[in-house]
Amino acid sequence: MREAHVVGAGQSDFGAFPDESYRSLSLTAVREALDGAPGDESLSPGAVDECFLGTLGVGGRQLGLSAPAVARHVGVDAPATRVENACAAGGYAVRAATRAVRAGDADLALVVGVEVMNDLGESLPYWLGVSGETAYERLAGTTFSGVYAQMASAHMDTYGTTREDLSRVAVKNHHNGARNPHAHLAFECTLAEATDGPRVADPLGLYHCCPTTDGAAAVLVASAEVAADLARPSARVAGVGAGSDAVGLFDRDTYTAIPASRRAADRAYDRAGTGPDDLDLAEVHDCFSIAELLAYEDLGLCEPGESATLLQSGATELDGELPVNTSGGLKSKGHPIGATGTGQVVEVYDQLAGRAGERQVDGAEVGLTHNVGGSGGAAVVHVLDGGESA
Amino acid sequence: MREAHVVGAGQSDFGAFPDESYRSLSLTAVREALDGAPGDESLSPGAVDECFLGTLGVGGRQLGLSAPAVARHVGVDAPATRVENACAAGGYAVRAATRAVRAGDADLALVVGVEVMNDLGESLPYWLGVSGETAYERLAGTTFSGVYAQMASAHMDTYGTTREDLSRVAVKNHHNGARNPHAHLAFECTLAEATDGPRVADPLGLYHCCPTTDGAAAVLVASAEVAADLARPSARVAGVGAGSDAVGLFDRDTYTAIPASRRAADRAYDRAGTGPDDLDLAEVHDCFSIAELLAYEDLGLCEPGESATLLQSGATELDGELPVNTSGGLKSKGHPIGATGTGQVVEVYDQLAGRAGERQVDGAEVGLTHNVGGSGGAAVVHVLDGGESA
Asked: Which pTM was predicted?
């Protein structure tokens, strides 16, 4: 079987850009991915032979056929397909691209993840909710902060996790995001600020929730042959795993874990022939602070119930043993739904290529991305290995 | 490289079912695909190791994460991904499933195509339009019937095609649909009725337009090994091709062809090592009658401008040399957006298995499906070969 390699990555700034469009943001990200860093061999859109768009697709823009619309706008004349799994759309789009390469259907595949939400006005709450389980959650008035608050309450009750632990996730990720020129909320915060913020959905406060973000991210995935011929860094997609589950939290076996994440991680580790101990960094889905703690446990970075202890140890800080969310994560870098999972791969590629600036993890060779749809109806995990790259 | 085989297919009735849900219709289709025909070895949902959902996704239902929601409802515990390319969503979902099998990621993949639209009430026109090009077509008031009317006018002007030719498509497809127990508009019509129907968008009349249909279709795609072990008919996916283009008609090179269809067909024929002459039947995307005529030309069934002559010759009728839309097509069987492309594969599978009842094409061994998104922003073609099946 052929192998797939990430050979390029780019992104727009993440933020609130009501005057930008899904196409203009996508073009910025794609150009950066095609051009590469100074000194890289540049690539032409004409070299792309398959395109995937990860987007939830909201509001009054191109809801159907957005993939061909974006492909056309960025100059790519190739089959284009939209992949959607709510907040995991971007990660699933990367998965689809690696498969196109591995199946021998593409030598160079482009992934674009994008979302524009800050121009939605009064319809924003509707569109933010459409990935919630419809019958028993969304139409009953439950929001995503409400669902994750239930998970946080359950974790606190079961394992003694505290609101300060939730705040520590925010402090760490804002610390990282303040060093990311593309981050939406690029400022630091203190433990007291994070804990004392306005309550959103008890026990979650404002600093325990990610912002509403616009942005785009792009990734290029190539065959081993193409990757070897290109004068630019590459990272082998060592393993990919995906998992699904009930869309509604009420319908799952547990409130203190996201089983889809576990399934996705187990498959990715298995295919990569690696495990948590082999990782040098990870980008995980911290849409709410509790989600990062659950991710530690679901991805096997620690035992169930031990995530707060792991966090408190400093191991997941930028200078720790296994830095998590060096980009700032969804909390600080931002969460432009469809762009999030693709953007995680951008960060890991940049880290493995030694291009993460102030956020650089020394000697990073193996990185993981973890992208969740909704409250856990879908999850996808990638393990990237840059150790074989020039 | 592994090969992919269709080993099962099922569908709900197509029609107006405001009391059904996307899940209930999907379950009907999936059960039929898993159970197979009497005498077939039945399959369990637990055997499915990957799931794709083709749907535009409309109205107040599960807009995000609908793929895991459907997978859960039909008892499938596997990664589930929504694939969207407007009216070609179902065909692109089949393409994704064959790729999952060919890449070695799945031994048995399930495709579900579904749409429910007849409960939308006043929001129906909005949702029917969201795949139109947003800026210069949809928001300017152009509907899909309007866009296809422009293509019809251009074809009539360039090649002398007549409104009676458009009507002949309707007469043929209603003849076939009247023999399909699942068809939405299962009645015959005369040339005069089809020509004299109320004008919708000149030159298109009511009988030149497909209905607004609810329904679901399901297809099972397996590896060669699994297919060989199963006591049920299989059809090898000999070739798949896809193509994209500008979403807006105004932005394309021609009004008298759908270039994305040509690209998709060329790729599919090339991979299959076949051509139009090898086909025993074809299901083509006749959302409007002009679209079937364009398909004849774009798929190479005849030269550009010769489609009306081919149609008049009777070659594409049920007892002709190359029957087209034996199911009744979108015109008579109906057009439940996301279910359409998947449903085309259901018809071809049934034909190749000799299970098409009154519509059976004698000795059918090779069939083609052709599914278009919007007015031609995306197209996907499959060539299925049942000749090697038991």
From this structure: 0.98
Contact B77 A244 (CB under 8 A): yes
Measured between beta carbons, which residues in chain A are less than 8 angstroms from residue B374? Answer: 64-65
CA–CA separation, A69 and B76 (whole Å): 32
Residue B380: HSE in the Cβ half-sphere, 13 Å Cα cutoff = 28
In chain B, which among 22-61 make CB contacts under 8 A with chain A?
51, 56-57, 60-61
Residue B220 has pLDDT above 90, yes or no: yes
Is pLDDT of B255 > 90?
Answer: yes
**Which of A62, A374, A380 faces B247 most closely, judged by CB atoms?**
A62
Please state which of the ranges A140-144, B95-99, B100-104, B275-279 shows the lowest mean pLDDT.
A140-144
| pLDDT digits 0-9 by tens, B258-299 | 999 999 999 999 999 999 999 999 999 999 999 999 999 999
Q: Do A79 and B131 touch (CB under 8 A)?
A: no
Strand A50-54 with A80-84, pairing: parallel
Does residue A141 have a pLDDT over 60? yes
A260 vs A246: CA distance, rounded Å: 9
Measured CA distances, B293 to A287, B250, B266, B329, B347 (Å) = 50, 20, 18, 13, 20
Residue B250, chain A, CB below 8 Å: the answer is no
Rounded CA separation A253/B343 (Å): 35
User: What is the interface pTM, i.e. ipTM, of the complex?
Assistant: 0.97
Average pLDDT over every residue of B342-368: 98
Q: Out of B5, B335, B370, B382, which one is annotated catalytic? A: B335
Q: For residue B374, how many other CB atoms are within 10 A of its CB?
A: 29
In chain B, what residues touch A85 (CB-CB under 8 Å)?
64-65, 67-68, 80-82
Selecting from B80, B84, B103 the residue whose C-beta is nearest the C-beta of A102 gives: B103
Three-state DSSP class for B182?
A: coil
